[in-house]
Amino acid sequence: MHIPAWVLPQAGTVKNLQEYLPIMSLNLTYTHVNKIFGEQSKNPVHALKDVSFAIEPGELFCLLGPSGCGKTTLLRSTAGLESITDGQILYGDKDMTLIPPFRRNIGMVFQSFALYPHMNIFENVAYGLRVRKTPDDIVRKKVTEVMELVGLTEELKRNPSPTGLSGGQQQRVAIARALVYDPDILLLDEPLANLDAKLRRYMRAEIRRIQKATNITTIFVTHDQEEAMAIGDRLAVLRKGVVEQIGSSNELYTRPNNAFVSNFIGKMNFFNAKLTGQGKATIEGTQTEISVHPENVRFSTNKGVANGSSVLLGARPEQLEICKERTSEGIRGTVQIIQHLGQFVRYEVVLDASVSEVSMEIDMPYMVEGVFERDSVYVKVKEGLPFLFLPEVRN
């Protein structure tokens, strides 16, 4: 993988690298993939359920979902570390379903880094090349290039054990080791989970910079929605082995398919409501009728959803507002917590029990004058902006 230093971007300056880089990337396709653990047991676990989608060549694709949703199982199946029950996994046009892991030419980065403390960082990065019996001169050349790519040239000159590096530097060594032998696919299994919050934010940008410089088709697994939104070209949200929705972070945030996706990508406040007409619903326990933009109605009202049917009205924190004075559209509640978060102020408000059993989060662009914790306030839903969903289990 020879990438001249002059084409490598600084963090945050990635653009149109493909016109400089001749590296060919593979698409990755899943066709009706199922994985059942303990298929012959009394209590089999259907970890992946008819998973079918494609990842584009050179794409940085995120698998996102709560614990137990199947994202790591799908990643391990892609690597060949788990055999699938049925279906197909294709690298490009080649069916890799029955190909063992050591024949798949993948690079994998684990949550634990998995570096060898008894080896210096050069030998850690070179390990995959040594296993492939690569000549020494090529090993030196490729290790030097990939360490330049991940920004560890000075550390390579010192060449300490990985234990002499910071957490972020160790993570970059692990990424370099995965890239040095030119893998067809790069797989990252929650690689930032062991880093502190500030370093995680920095490494997000670094991982995206490195991936765009190499143009390798990459899967990034995480349960952190903010991390996935910051890193991924596209995201797949999984729940109980099912792919609920695939799209860009903006598509998933602004056009979620259902209540689960809406509450997993960002925060969503929910109100039980009754449908009163096309795109209109009345919040239960109040006389407040809310109009919703047609694009935000996440079901077809002509398919058995009649007026009077129960629905969920979903409003993001920025789609609510706090009023100190009583209004006809306001819902009474009590402020529990006020957090000033820089660009906005978040109010956590418990509404009357007849309206909601959980607290609401409201983001205001400023401190509401005269409103303090434990004060009574009125929460208003902004007209037209919220979503309407069919009722479902949201956790």
UniProtKB/TrEMBL annotation:
InterPro entries found in the cross-reference section: AAA+_ATPase, ABC_transporter-like_ATP-bd, ABC_transporter-like_CS, ABC_transpr_MalK/UgpC-like, Mo/tungstate-bd_C_term_dom, NA-bd_OB-fold, OB_MalK-like, P-loop_NTPase
Q: GO CC terms for this protein?
A: ATP-binding cassette (ABC) transporter complex, substrate-binding subunit-containing
> Where does the signal peptide begin and end?
none
> E.C. number, please?
3.6.3.31
| Keywords annotated in UniProt | ATP-binding, Cell membrane, Hydrolase, Membrane, Nucleotide-binding, Translocase, Transport
Residues covered by the ABC transporter domain: 28-265
GO molecular-function annotation terms? ABC-type transporter activity; ATP binding; ATP hydrolysis activity
| Name recorded for this polypeptide | Polyamine-transporting ATPase
Lineage, please? Bacteria, Pseudomonadati, Spirochaetota, Spirochaetia, Spirochaetales
